[in-house]
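From the shared-data thread, chain only:
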Amino acid sequence: MITTRRAALALLPTPALAQSRPIRLVAPYAPGGVTDQLARAWAEILARELGQPVVVENRPGANTIIGTEVVARAAPDGLTLLMASGASMVLNPLLYRRLPYDAERDLVTLGMLVETPLLMVAPPALGVASAREFAELARRRALNSASVGVGNPIHLAAELFRAAAGIELQNVVYPGSAPALAALLSGDVQVMFDVVLTALPFVRDGRLRALAVTTREPLAVLPDVPTVAETFPGYEATTWFGLAAPRGLPAETEARLRGAIAVVQADAGLRGRFGALGLIMLPARDAPAIAATLAGERARWGDIIRARGITLEQ
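Structure, as tokens:
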């Protein structure tokens, strides 16, 4: 149905962007928090570059599915954008057997703007100071990993570490980052692959020990913390946020949007502001490079998800 409607719309003469109308940036997350801050910062620069208003519309719920479906069903005219993520474009299609949209068929990722590293943290009382020491301990005794849900990046990063290190690691789910970190601090669980923003204060005050970061390179905010890949080559577990649109945009419109997104990515103010929170602004990539990156992510996470039988459907 979506494909048929788009084919009909493609026959209508449309300008590159209907500049008399605002662009709607759908963020499938609740207002407030870092994701909302990102969307609004991007909207401000896009509005300036495109010469028309960009309005953030928060449509949270169902693990980003609600907001993503809104954009997947929108007209491909450049007036509806999605704050896309690894969850909406890669993980959900692997974790759900049925979705109201097809990420590859219905949406096109115009830019991957921000990478979100994770930090492998453990309580000092555990007595380990590195990813290698943690793996060695896990071979001697049963250890648990805290997460905030099945199939989210925090859980999957731990599963990827389990496979890379050749150990067993039990996932223990908590209803949010705060209770998961509380369990880690009390020793109820032994490790967590948390986002840098929430884990960093506990590392800085000594209540948690940073064992490793999950990026390819060390982080500017934690330059002395090694990467997991230094011990287990090839390991990488991050998620990302970017911008997507309904597939089928006119070529002129798509080019104009990609150009504006490249300006967002080059903004030094955003790089400094969000870099201090442990986020990494990504360089602009062309369409083939983005497609190759998404294909690599689907392969990497798909292998782990299938091997462990992880699903979000009964």
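Residues 287-308 form the longest helix (22 residues).
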